Amino acid sequence: MTASSLRGARRRFPLLALCAGAFAYSACQRSAAEAPSTSQQPTVPEGWEMVWHDEFDGSGLPDPSHWSYDVGGHGWGNNELQSYTEARAENARIKDGHLIIEARHEAYEGAEYTSARLTTKGHGEWTHGRFVIRARLPEGRGTWPAIWMLPVEWTTGDGGWPDVGELDIMEHVGHNLGVIHASAHSRDYQWQVGTQKTGTIEIPDATTAFHDYILEWTPDVIRAFVDDRLYFEYENEGLGWSKWPYTQDFYLILNIAVGGAWGGEQGVDPDVFPQRMEVDYVRVYQQSKTER
């Protein structure tokens, strides 16, 4: 998803066994989709220490000491259809131990849809780390949820995207159900010229079950996982900022876009809305001093 000054140009791109019969299967599906995912006590991976987290306890709006909003409905440089709102419970709220980001089909400030785009900028910013976000994704043609990162300072290269870099922990488009993408973008490796560093994995129940979407970023390598399954790895070639601009603080972004060059490739089905991305927790780790 491209943004204006904030977002760079974007791209592209065993329940059934327990349910007998069509009616039972449908009921079982609904039960799985509606059942809450309970946050457990964090298990710290060996060699890492937790430095920041949000378990989304309580209720109401997201914690303002952890999250801010990107706001607007100008297409985000990518012909997206939503207007991102600020501190509006219809689009972002805490309920039953989850952060709910909800995209809605409604007229709002000249846009056809509303949604939310939350960021940790000013609240949580890191150079390197292990980022674990447990989420259940929206479905439906035209949805484009993302969990990703941008740099705090836009000073690398020409000071614009893609020179400054971008790290995508999870992207999913509704017209390609269950295919999860992770990517790294830089001046030399980016989607506009078809050279982005990227990987995909199929998660058939991504829209009905919670999964951990994980990025590990060190000075030497970037890796992406779903749960414990590694599916993307990009090693630092040591050839400078144009290939590896990931040497400064980045912050997290969580959002659902509607339509756009990639999310809207096959149009938008207005009848599927509202759609939610539900986040059980966000946990950030950095390597223990003994591991650095």
Largest sheet: 10 strands, mixed
Return the CATH architecture: Sandwich
| Level-1 CATH class name | Mainly Beta
Number of domains: 1
Q: What does the oligomeric state look like here?
A: single chain
CATH topology: Jelly Rolls
Tally of helical runs: 2
The percent range for strand residues is 35-45%
Helix content: under 10%
Average pLDDT, rounded to a whole number, is 88
Number of strands: 17
Broad shape? globular
Following the backbone from N to C, one meets helices and strands in this order, namely HEEEEEEEEEEEEEEEEHE
Report on the structure:
Helix content is 6%, strand content 39%. It is mainly β and 292 residues long. Strands 1, 3, 4, 5, 6, 8, 13, 14, 15 and 17 form a ten-stranded mixed β-sheet that branches. It contains two helices and 17 strands. The protein has a single domain, classed as Jelly Rolls. A hairpin with a 7-residue loop joins strand 10 (166-171) and strand 11 (179-185).
Give the topology.
Layout: H1 21-34, E1 48-54, E2 68-69, E3 82-84, E4 92-95, E5 98-108, E6 111-115, E7 117-119, E8 129-136, E9 143-151, E10 166-171, E11 179-185, E12 197-202, E13 211-217, E14 221-226, E15 229-235, E16 250-258, H2 260-263, E17 275-287
Parallel strand pairs: 3-6
Antiparallel strand pairs: 1-17, 2-7, 4-5, 5-6, 5-17, 7-16, 8-13, 8-17, 9-10, 9-16, 10-11, 11-12, 13-14, 14-15
Summarize the structure.
6% of the residues lie in helices and 39% in strands. With 292 residues, it is mainly beta. Residues 1-38 have low confidence and may be disordered.
